[in-house]
Write a sequence for this structure.
């Protein structure tokens, strides 16, 4: 039995410790925000936070997590009370198919926990590991800029003005 | 968070009577499927399903259910169709429930493709809603003994203005909607509209942004088993599998085998994926008859071809030409590259099969699966559930066929089958490689007096219409034959989509070379031939403008007699400040325009692009577009589609090319097929929507793909003085991972 600290609570799963976190979240804990995209750590659809860092849940074995805190997009807010990053994504309507977006939100959350005043380049570099195929990049970037402002900071040199 | 089966089945108590069972699919095309027209006087798909209860039902509690045969592919159609219904019915937006593509519930609207959802289904729903509103007003009028014209509606009720009102729920109890729509029912006046034309937020995003189950991938049914299919590395290969060894791998509970089709089944995903990787070690063979495409683009010229002249006009046969230009343009094979690999669920119970699928065409998929399983189509139900973004015919149909084959071997057990990333890259049909040859003549005044366009392309649709069009259908024994490819006729066109110029050239000849032999599995990719044809046409316009010594924007306007085309060109040029642009070293501006399919949305785009010396990477400083989609139902939805189309086309046109080594594909994940990342995304994108209230909806989802490719090449020419005629034109800054 593996014990995990997920979204502020304790979760248990009877799985092989080598199982990547993503399968435990989706199949055992019923947390569907993180998505399977490649299983190779190349696309970021599975991104979640472990402590405050973004990780590819499709690669990280659950047995390696220990007591570190796992945060998924479910832990950031709900449809009734969305978190500030989720709210920024909604305000910018940053989604087409939406499949990559939970990974994007997790990655943006990790960036903003590190700094709320990144440069445009730092923001883009932080988001770069996550792929979007619909071409929603501009809206995702607008949402991250907006979320930075909501956190009391802001992108130092935004390429587009924050509405 | 397991969803109950009842929820997943829609939980509807009643379904309307579907039109007589089997209709011949018109097949192959896009959005052209479905039953024949029975009411040509009615608008959109109402012409095929004229009865109102096929589209709209009102429950005793006043909630309204709207049915569309189209599917949400990530473009926001659920929101736009609900807007149309809410406004035309005069019901609060949040009281509308929308049921999308489901062979058991919704009208057969063929395939969701070709940017035709609002044109076909949106038009039908809007007119059906206007009809229902009138019927309810007439019911109230009869009840009160007054003229219907004396009544009005507000928020789900009919009122007489003197204190009497009757709710729709009340009136619907005595009003049958099983009646034919009338063609002459007026739509709501523009000034009375409250929802249409507004940037209503997408109805699907809150769930997607907070992690609620939203995709077929997220479905978990009670007692569900996972499955993975065993195949060779790519289309054109056969896997060699030691099934008895695979059966002993941990987590594999059983193997379902039908001839050359095999899938492993087990209760947990991760052990199955490990087994799938282990199974792949035993190698593969090239399929007999598989052949390499050869070096592109010349290989296309050597293929067997069926040639058709699709435009020939000689209005001024005796014109004198001063200067003749010719150029060839080409693109490679391209991937759809959905971020989530294809997935389907299937359940075979009591002799009936239900398949949950992200296919674009639940009806043709149902027919194909029924043939595959030798079942009657009435016993097969295909229900659309969203997948990762869909940009054409990807693995969605194939994986549904795979899941169906496994499910019928395991009655009563829901089966969830998901492809691996490697299978998606290796087996999805690619967008075909293409080439175009352009010829043009200028007269002494710098006017184009004759135009020639020839295009060489495989088919742009191998969408399933029969069992042999599904991968599994060709693996079982005996195999089903694939439907022979055929060209999609004009005015939509396939390989020749947008090959006919919208410009008013006095003399023009356009020739389509259809290449029936497919060395690589290909099918529909967003925009079909429009991507390459518009890239060629709009690049060549730039070349001719330069030869004539004219400004590219003025040159285009001088050759157009379409005022809506001119309007978007002027709007984009103004917003971009085309006149005020100052060139800088290694940096230039490019312009392009097209009307998608020559009958969809008008789009003009200007780009400001720099190629960083020595590095070779591109910086798109600005993209500015203007789009005319007719009446704008949701302007932000239109902007979202066009912004996305610009960025996606930049990715295709700058960076992408799917490889093949002669026997198999060479790209199995994102490491060798890099797509545009945030570092390469434009610094800024602005999209202006030119609204045309009262005008028909014009398909928008694919309108940016072609013009963006040409604007990019035109900007690079301005920046460097070198013409890029072969796509892709650059390398991703991400390079290879």
């Amino acid at each position: 039995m593996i014990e995990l600290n997920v979204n502020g609570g304790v979760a248990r799963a009877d799985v092989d410790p080598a199982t990547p976190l993503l399968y435990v979240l989706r199949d055992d804990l019923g947390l569907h925000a993180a998505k399977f995209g490649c299983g190779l750590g190349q696309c970021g659809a599975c991104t979640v936070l472990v402590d405050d860092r973004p990780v590819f849940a499709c690669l990280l074995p659950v047995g390696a997590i220990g007591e570190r805190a796992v945060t998924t997009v479910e832990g950031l807010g709900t449809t009734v009370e969305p978190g500030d990053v989720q709210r920024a994504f909604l305000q910018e309507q940053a989604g087409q198919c939406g499949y990559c977006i939970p990974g994007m939100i997790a990655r943006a959350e990790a960036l903003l926990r590190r700094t709320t005043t990144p440069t445009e380049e730092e923001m883009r570099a932080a988001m770069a590991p996550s792929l979007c195929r619909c071409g929603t990049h501009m809206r995702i970037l607008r949402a991250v800029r907006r979320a930075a402002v909501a956190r009391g900071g802001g992108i130092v040199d935004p390429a587009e003005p924050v509405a | 968070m397991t969803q109950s089966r009842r929820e997943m089945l829609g939980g509807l108590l009643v379904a309307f009577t579907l039109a007589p069972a089997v209709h011949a699919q018109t097949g192959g095309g896009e959005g052209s499927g479905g039953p024949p027209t029975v009411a040509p006087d009615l608008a959109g798909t109402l012409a095929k399903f004229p009865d109102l209860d096929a589209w709209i039902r009102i429950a005793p509690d006043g909630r309204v259910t709207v049915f569309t045969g189209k599917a949400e592919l990530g473009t926001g159609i659920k929101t736009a169709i609900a807007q149309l219904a809410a406004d035309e019915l005069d019901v609060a937006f949040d009281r509308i429930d929308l049921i999308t593509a489901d062979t058991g519930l919704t009208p057969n609207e063929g395939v969701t493709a070709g940017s035709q959802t609002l044109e076909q289904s949106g038009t039908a729903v809007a007119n059906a809603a206007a009809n229902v509103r009138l019927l309810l007003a007439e019911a109230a009028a009869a009840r009160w003994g007054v003229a219907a014209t004396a009544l009005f509606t507000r928020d789900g009720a009919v009122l007489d203005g003197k204190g009497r009102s009757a709710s729709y729920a009340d009136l619907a109890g005595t009003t049958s909607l099983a009646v034919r729509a009338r063609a002459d029912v007026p739509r709501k006046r523009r000034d009375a509209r409250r929802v249409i034309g507004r940037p209503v937020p997408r109805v699907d995003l809150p769930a997607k942004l907070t992690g609620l189950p939203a995709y077929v991938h997220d479905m978990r049914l009670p007692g569900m088993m996972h499955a993975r299919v065993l195949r060779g590395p790519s289309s054109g290969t056969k896997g060699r599998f030691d099934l008895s060894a695979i059966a002993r791998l941990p987590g594999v509970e059983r193997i379902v085998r039908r001839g050359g089709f095999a899938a492993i089944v087990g209760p947990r995903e991760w052990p199955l994926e490990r087994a799938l990787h282990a199974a792949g070690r035993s190698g593969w063979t090239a399929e007999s008859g598989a052949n390499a495409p050869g070096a592109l683009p010349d290989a296309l010229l050597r293929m067997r071809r069926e040639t058709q002249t699709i435009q020939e006009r000689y209005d001024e046969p005796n014109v004198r030409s001063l200067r003749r230009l010719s150029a060839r343009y080409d693109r490679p094979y391209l991937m759809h590259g959905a971020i989530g690999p294809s997935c389907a669920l299937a359940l075979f119970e009591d002799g009936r099969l239900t398949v949950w699928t992200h296919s674009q065409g639940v009806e043709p998929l149902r027919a194909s699966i029924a043939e595959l399983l030798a079942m009657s189509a009435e016993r097969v139900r295909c229900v659309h559930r969203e997948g990762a973004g869909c940009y054409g015919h990807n693995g969605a149909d194939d994986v549904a066929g795979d899941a169906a084959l496994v499910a019928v071997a395991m009655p009563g057990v829901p089966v969830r089958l998901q492809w691996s990333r490697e299978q998606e890259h290796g087996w999805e049909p690619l967008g075909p490689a293409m080439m175009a040859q352009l010829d043009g003549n200028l007269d002494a005044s710098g006017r184009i007096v004759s135009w020639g366009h020839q295009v060489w392309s495989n088919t742009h649709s191998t969408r399933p219409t029969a069992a042999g069009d599904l991968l599994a259908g060709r693996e079982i024994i005996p195999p089903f034959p694939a439907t022979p490819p055929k060209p999609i006729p004009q005015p939509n066109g396939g390989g020749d989509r947008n090959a006919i110029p919208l410009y008013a050239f006095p003399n023009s000849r356009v020739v389509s070379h259809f290449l029936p032999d497919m060395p690589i599995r290909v099918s529909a990719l967003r925009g079909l031939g429009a991507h390459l044809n518009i890239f060629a046409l709009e690049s060549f316009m730039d070349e001719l403008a330069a030869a004539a010594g004219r400004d590219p924007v003025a040159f285009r306007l001088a050759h157009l007699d379409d005022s809506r085309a001119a309007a978007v060109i002027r709007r984009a040029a103004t917003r971009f400040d085309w006149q005020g642009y100052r060139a800088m070293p290694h940096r230039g501006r490019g312009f392009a325009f097209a009307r998608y399919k020559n009958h969809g949305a008008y789009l003009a785009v200007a780009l400001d692009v720099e190629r960083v010396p020595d590095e070779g990477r591109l910086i798109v400083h600005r993209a500015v577009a203007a789009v005319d989609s007719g009446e704008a139902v949701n302007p932000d939805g239109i902007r979202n589609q066009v912004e996305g189309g610009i960025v996606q086309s930049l990715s295709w046109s700058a960076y992408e090319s799917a490889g093949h080594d002669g026997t198999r594909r060479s790209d199995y994940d994102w490491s060798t097929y890099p797509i545009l990342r945030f570092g390469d995304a434009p610094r800024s994108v602005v999209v202006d929507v030119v609204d045309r209230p009262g005008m028909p909806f014009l398909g928008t989802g694919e309108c940016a793909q072609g013009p963006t490719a040409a604007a990019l090449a035109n900007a690079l020419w301005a920046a460097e003085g070198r013409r890029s005629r072969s796509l892709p034109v650059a390398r991703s800054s991400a390079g290879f991972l």
Observations:
- Chain A is about 30% helix and 15% strand.
- The radius of gyration of chain A is 15 Å.
